[in-house]
Write a structure and sequence with these properties.
With 280 residues, the protein is of the alpha/beta class. It is built from ten helices and ten strands. The protein has a single domain, classed as 3-Layer(aba) Sandwich (Rossmann fold). Helix content is 34%, strand content 18%.
C-alpha cells in the first residue's frame, strides 16, 4: 500500500455487474474513499456480505472478503472480528437481507456492541429476485409479485436501530457521495457497532431517485448526536428522510474489549475452580 493511498488502490480487477445507475456504485466508491482517507492497509480489511445485489460487494474490492449466506452477515462478521481483532470489519447487504431474514441479528450485535460497520443498501425492493416488496417497501406498492399492492407497512430501520441502542446510527443517500463518505469515515473510526442505512435506488425495479431528492434533507444543525431521545423523535418524522449521524455513543466498551478482559482473567482460573463454581 503506498504512503498516500488512493481510492482506486482498493478496487479489484472484477468489474461491478450492477445495473447502470444503481446506487450501490456510489456506496462502493464512497467506501473506497473512506479507506483511502483513513489510510487503511488492504490486508487489514475484511468485507463480509449476505445474499442479494449489494452483497456482491466483496468481489469488487481488493481486500479480504467473504460472501456468506442469506441474512447471516452479522454473525459472520462478529466471528471475523473476534478471531482477528486487529482487522477492520465491514458487513454489507440490502434491506431484504438485513431487515427480513437477518433482522433478528441486529439487536444482538447492538447489545454486544461488536466493533464493526454494517452498511445496509436500502432500495425498498428485492432487486435480485425481480422486484418483490421488501421490508422497507411502502404499503400499497404494486409490482408483479404484489399485483394488488403490498399489504404490509414498511419498517423504520433508523427507529429500530435506535430502539436496540446501536451505538452509532446514521442514514445516508447514495446520491450524495461526499456526505456518504464523511459518514463512513466516522463509522469506521467508531469503537463499536455502527449501522448505516444507505438509501440506494434500484433503477430497474423501483427507481426512487426523484423521490429521495424531494424528501431527503440533512439533520438539523442543532441536533446533538449524543441525545438518543432526540434522535428517536427525528426518526419518527418519516415524511422527511433525514440524512446524517442520528446517534453516537463512544463510551461503551466493545465486545472485543470485554473478551480481552476475560482472556486476561482466564489463565488465572483453574478448571477445578470453574467446576466447583458450577456445583454451587
Amino acid at each position: 500500500m503506498p504512503d498516500e493511498p488512493r481510492a482506486s488502490d482498493y478496487k479489484s480487477d472484477v468489474k461491478p455487474i450492477w445495473c447502470p445507475g444503481c446506487g450501490d456504485y456510489a456506496v462502493l466508491a464512497a467506501l473506497m474513499r473512506a479507506f483511502a482517507h483513513l489510510r487503511l492497509a488492504k490486508e487489514n480489511i475484511t468485507v463480509a456480505s449476505g445474499i442479494g445485489c449489494s452483497s456482491r460487494f466483496p468481489t469488487f474490492l481488493d481486500t479480504y472478503g467473504i460472501h456468506g449466506i442469506h441474512g447471516r452477515v452479522l454473525p459472520l462478521a462478529t466471528g471475523i472480528k473476534l478471531g482477528r481483532p486487529e482487522t477492520t470489519v465491514i458487513a454489507v447487504g440490502g434491506d431484504g437481507d438485513g431487515f427480513s431474514i437477518g433482522g433478528g441479528h441486529i439487536p444482538h450485535a447492538a447489545r454486544r456492541n461488536v466493533d464493526l460497520t454494517y452498511i445496509v443498501m436500502d432500495n425498498n425492493i428485492y432487486g435480485m429476485t425481480k422486484g418483490q416488496p421488501s421490508p422497507t417497501s411502502p404499503e400499497g406498492i404494486v409490482n408483479k409479485a404484489a399485483p394488488y399492492g403490498a399489504q404490509e407497512g414498511p419498517l423504520n430501520p433508523i427507529l429500530l436501530a435506535l430502539s436496540y441502542d446501536v451505538s452509532f446510527v446514521a442514514r445516508c443517500y447514495s446520491g450524495k457521495i461526499k456526505e456518504l463518505t464523511d459518514v463512513l469515515i466516522e463509522a469506521l473510526k467508531h469503537p463499536g457497532f455502527s449501522l448505516i442505512q444507505v438509501l440506494s435506488p434500484c433503477v430497474t425495479y423501483y427507481n426512487t431517485y426523484d423521490h429521495y431528492r424531494e424528501i431527503t434533507q440533512p439533520l438539523p444543525s442543532s441536533h446533538d448526536p449524543t441525545d438518543r431521545l432526540a434522535a428517536i423523535a427525528l426518526a419518527l418524522q418519516t415524511e422527511t428522510q433525514y440524512l446524517g449521524i442520528f446517534y453516537r455513543d463512544s463510551s461503551r466498551p466493545s465486545y472485543g474489549e470485554r473478551f480481552d478482559a476475560v482472556r486476561a482473567k482466564a489463565p488465572q482460573t483453574t478448571l477445578a475452580a470453574i467446576f466447583e463454581g458450577l456445583k454451587r
